[in-house]
Amino acid sequence: EAQVTQNPRYLITVTGKKLTVTCSQNMNHEYMSWYRQDPGLGLRQIYYSMNVEVTDKGDVPEGYKVSRKEKRNFPLILESPSPNQTSLYFCASSWGTGDDTQYFGPGTRLTVL
Amino acid sequence: QKEVEQNSGPLSVPEGAIASLNCTYSDRVSQSFFWYRQYSGKSPELIMSIYSNGDKEDGRFTAQLNKASQYVSLLIRDSQPSDSATYLCAVWSAGGFKTIFGAGTRLFVKA
Questions:
Q1: 3 state SS of A85
Q2: Which of A32, A65, B6, B51 is most enclosed, with most CB atoms within 10 A?
Q3: A102 touches chain B (CB under 8 A)
């Protein structure tokens, strides 16, 4: 089954404790992206990647890191989480450079205390 | 000014009626336009994509694009209670290789 998976689905952590949210897709998509969704603000792009070892900042990259060492995986790293990073996070992938249908993972709800 | 604007709603329509969802965008060079549906607690899923001016129909859904007015809309005919969800307008611009999403419009279809 074609899908985007994320782990964990739910996470409660404390300020400053490094965490990684994994994202994997099995559709051989080149483009992958991370979004955060907050009430009233919609989906905002954090980082995107057009291929292996090619990543770039989205609209809200502060406090986040990403890497793309393999085509299928695109982890999101929070080196020192803060309460303002409490949000719902979605990973997405698509065939081309992003001007195509994006397939979203199930989401990760993160709470930083 | 937000780059992609939608009325947050909620928009409430009776079952069987036409629901009209609207979206405006600010980047004139935007090339690709999408409507995603998001049920509560779920991830967004694509409903329609449209790339050129005019109408595009798919079943009960019709997307309309007017690049001169920087306006894109989604019509849902014969609305069903199962259409109750948040609808996200998304605009892709080649200039930034990124998709900008609106905040979404909540739609309620009353049985």
A1: helix
A2: A32
A3: yes
Q: Is B61 on the interface with A (CB under 8 A)?
A: no
Q: What is the pLDDT of residue B31?
A: 84
Assigned token pair, A9: 């689905």
Cβ neighbours of B88 in A, within 8 Å? 42-43
The shortest C-alpha distance from A14 to chain B (Å) reads 24
Q: What confidence tens digit (pLDDT) does each residue in A98-108 have?
A: 668 899 999 99
B31 contacts A42? CB cut-off 8 A: no
Cβ distance B101 to A58 less than 8 Å, yes or no, reads no
- Side chain identity at A74, as an amino acid letter? F
What is the spatial distance between Cα B106 and Cα B74, in angstroms, rounded to a whole number?
A: 13
* Nearest residue to A78 via CA among A1, A18, A10, A16: A18
With the C-alpha atoms ordered A59, A62, A68, A72, is the resulting torsion angle positive or negative?
negative
Percentage of chain B lying above the pLDDT 90 cut: 79
Q: Tens digit of pLDDT for each residue in B37-51?
A: 999 989 999 999 999
